[in-house]
Amino acid sequence: MDNWEWDRDKILETGIVLYPLRPDTLYRQVAVADIAAMVVAALEHPEVWAGQIMPLAGDVATMEEITATLSRVTGRELRYRQMSWEQCVEEQGEELMLMYRYFDGFGMDGVPQFLRRWHPGAVSFEAYLREAGWGDAAV
Q1: Smallest Cα–Cα separation from 103: which of 54, 63, 58, 59?
Q2: Strand partners, 60
Q3: Does the pLDDT of residue 139 top 90, yes or no?
Q4: Structure confidence by residue, pLDDT tens digits, 77-133
Q5: How many CB atoms lie within 10 A of CB 28?
Q6: What's the pTM?
Q7: Per-residue DSSP letters for 64-111?
Q8: What is the CATH number of domain 2-133?
Q9: To 10 degrees, the CA torsion angle through 123, 124, 130, 134?
Q10: Which of 2, 10, 40, 113 has a 20 to 30 A CA-CA distance from 139?
Protein backbone atom coordinates (compact mmCIF):
# COMPACT_ATOMS: atom_id res chain seq x y z
CA MET A 1 0.00 0.00 0.00
CA ASP A 2 2.86 2.34 0.78
CA ASN A 3 3.89 2.23 -2.89
CA TRP A 4 0.95 4.51 -3.72
CA GLU A 5 2.98 7.34 -2.20
CA TRP A 6 5.22 7.29 -5.30
CA ASP A 7 2.24 8.30 -7.45
CA ARG A 8 0.29 10.50 -5.02
CA ASP A 9 1.22 13.85 -6.57
CA LYS A 10 0.70 12.63 -10.14
CA ILE A 11 -2.72 11.12 -9.32
CA LEU A 12 -3.87 14.25 -7.51
CA GLU A 13 -2.57 16.56 -10.26
CA THR A 14 -3.98 14.63 -13.23
CA GLY A 15 -7.03 12.95 -11.71
CA ILE A 16 -5.91 9.71 -13.36
CA VAL A 17 -4.79 6.43 -11.81
CA LEU A 18 -2.51 5.10 -14.54
CA TYR A 19 -1.27 1.48 -14.45
CA PRO A 20 -0.93 -1.32 -17.01
CA LEU A 21 -3.27 -3.71 -15.19
CA ARG A 22 -6.68 -4.49 -16.66
CA PRO A 23 -9.42 -2.58 -14.82
CA ASP A 24 -10.84 -5.87 -13.46
CA THR A 25 -7.53 -7.38 -12.32
CA LEU A 26 -7.58 -8.20 -8.60
CA TYR A 27 -4.72 -6.34 -6.95
CA ARG A 28 -3.64 -7.51 -3.50
CA GLN A 29 -1.95 -5.05 -1.18
CA VAL A 30 -0.47 -4.92 2.29
CA ALA A 31 0.85 -2.02 4.36
CA VAL A 32 4.53 -2.05 5.33
CA ALA A 33 3.53 -1.70 9.00
CA ASP A 34 1.50 -4.92 8.71
CA ILE A 35 4.44 -6.73 7.13
CA ALA A 36 6.56 -5.56 10.07
CA ALA A 37 3.96 -6.84 12.55
CA MET A 38 4.07 -10.27 10.91
CA VAL A 39 7.87 -10.30 10.96
CA VAL A 40 7.74 -9.63 14.70
CA ALA A 41 5.18 -12.43 15.12
CA ALA A 42 7.43 -14.81 13.18
CA LEU A 43 10.47 -13.90 15.29
CA GLU A 44 8.54 -14.18 18.56
CA HIS A 45 6.90 -17.49 17.60
CA PRO A 46 9.35 -19.48 15.48
CA GLU A 47 7.60 -22.69 16.52
CA VAL A 48 4.59 -21.54 14.47
CA TRP A 49 6.32 -19.79 11.58
CA ALA A 50 9.64 -21.56 10.91
CA GLY A 51 9.56 -23.01 7.41
CA GLN A 52 6.12 -21.56 6.68
CA ILE A 53 5.04 -19.30 3.84
CA MET A 54 2.16 -16.86 4.18
CA PRO A 55 1.33 -14.49 1.34
CA LEU A 56 0.24 -11.28 3.02
CA ALA A 57 -2.69 -9.21 1.77
CA GLY A 58 -4.46 -6.53 3.75
CA ASP A 59 -6.89 -5.75 0.95
CA VAL A 60 -7.98 -7.10 -2.44
CA ALA A 61 -9.69 -4.95 -5.06
CA THR A 62 -9.83 -4.36 -8.78
CA MET A 63 -8.13 -1.29 -10.21
CA GLU A 64 -11.55 0.28 -10.71
CA GLU A 65 -12.42 -0.36 -7.03
CA ILE A 66 -9.03 1.02 -5.97
CA THR A 67 -9.71 4.16 -8.01
CA ALA A 68 -13.16 4.49 -6.39
CA THR A 69 -11.55 4.22 -2.94
CA LEU A 70 -8.96 6.85 -3.86
CA SER A 71 -11.78 9.10 -5.08
CA ARG A 72 -13.82 8.61 -1.91
CA VAL A 73 -10.88 9.32 0.39
CA THR A 74 -9.53 12.33 -1.50
CA GLY A 75 -12.94 13.77 -2.28
CA ARG A 76 -11.88 14.10 -5.92
CA GLU A 77 -13.32 12.43 -8.98
CA LEU A 78 -10.54 10.19 -10.22
CA ARG A 79 -10.61 7.73 -13.10
CA TYR A 80 -8.62 4.65 -13.97
CA ARG A 81 -6.76 4.46 -17.25
CA GLN A 82 -4.87 1.38 -18.37
CA MET A 83 -1.49 2.26 -19.86
CA SER A 84 0.14 0.09 -22.51
CA TRP A 85 2.92 -2.32 -21.60
CA GLU A 86 5.27 -0.22 -23.74
CA GLN A 87 4.37 2.95 -21.85
CA CYS A 88 4.91 1.09 -18.58
CA VAL A 89 8.45 0.12 -19.67
CA GLU A 90 9.16 3.74 -20.64
CA GLU A 91 7.82 5.22 -17.39
CA GLN A 92 8.52 2.51 -14.81
CA GLY A 93 11.10 0.19 -16.32
CA GLU A 94 11.08 -3.36 -17.59
CA GLU A 95 11.20 -4.99 -14.14
CA LEU A 96 7.98 -3.35 -12.96
CA MET A 97 6.31 -4.01 -16.30
CA LEU A 98 7.13 -7.72 -15.96
CA MET A 99 5.77 -7.75 -12.40
CA TYR A 100 2.50 -6.11 -13.49
CA ARG A 101 2.22 -8.42 -16.48
CA TYR A 102 2.56 -11.41 -14.14
CA PHE A 103 -0.12 -9.98 -11.82
CA ASP A 104 -2.39 -9.34 -14.81
CA GLY A 105 -1.93 -12.82 -16.25
CA PHE A 106 -1.45 -15.12 -13.26
CA GLY A 107 -2.81 -13.14 -10.33
CA MET A 108 -1.47 -12.67 -6.83
CA ASP A 109 -1.67 -14.66 -3.60
CA GLY A 110 -2.91 -13.56 -0.22
CA VAL A 111 -6.24 -13.38 1.56
CA PRO A 112 -6.92 -10.52 4.01
CA GLN A 113 -8.84 -12.83 6.39
CA PHE A 114 -5.71 -14.97 6.90
CA LEU A 115 -3.58 -11.92 7.71
CA ARG A 116 -6.22 -10.64 10.16
CA ARG A 117 -6.34 -14.02 11.88
CA TRP A 118 -2.74 -13.47 13.00
CA HIS A 119 -2.73 -9.67 12.96
CA PRO A 120 -6.23 -8.32 13.69
CA GLY A 121 -5.02 -4.72 13.37
CA ALA A 122 -4.08 -5.09 9.69
CA VAL A 123 -5.36 -2.11 7.72
CA SER A 124 -7.60 -2.01 4.68
CA PHE A 125 -6.57 0.12 1.70
CA GLU A 126 -9.03 2.83 2.68
CA ALA A 127 -7.76 2.89 6.28
CA TYR A 128 -4.18 3.08 4.98
CA LEU A 129 -5.02 6.05 2.75
CA ARG A 130 -6.75 7.90 5.58
CA GLU A 131 -3.87 7.24 8.00
CA ALA A 132 -1.36 8.39 5.34
CA GLY A 133 -3.16 11.71 4.91
CA TRP A 134 -4.71 11.20 1.47
CA GLY A 135 -7.96 12.65 2.81
CA ASP A 136 -6.12 15.91 3.49
CA ALA A 137 -5.91 16.30 -0.31
CA ALA A 138 -9.66 16.92 -0.55
CA VAL A 139 -10.68 20.19 -2.14
Answers
A1: 63
A2: 28
A3: no
A4: 999 999 999 999 999 999 999 999 999 999 899 889 999 999 999 999 999 999 999
A5: 18
A6: 0.91
A7: HHHHHHHHHHHTS--EEEEPPHHHHHHHH-HHHHHHHHHHHHH-----
A8: 3.40.50.720
A9: 120
A10: 2
Cβ atoms within 10 Å of 138's Cβ, excluding its own: 9
What percentage of the chain has pLDDT greater than the value 70? 98
Q: Cα separation of 43 and 136, whole Å?
A: 36
Distance CA 46, CA 20 (A): 39
Q: Do 30 and 57 meet the contact criterion of CB atoms below 8 Å apart?
A: yes
Length of the chain: 139
Q: Report the amino acid identity of residue 16.
A: I
Residue 54 pLDDT: 86
Domain-by-domain residue ranges, the chain? 2-133
pLDDT for 136:
86
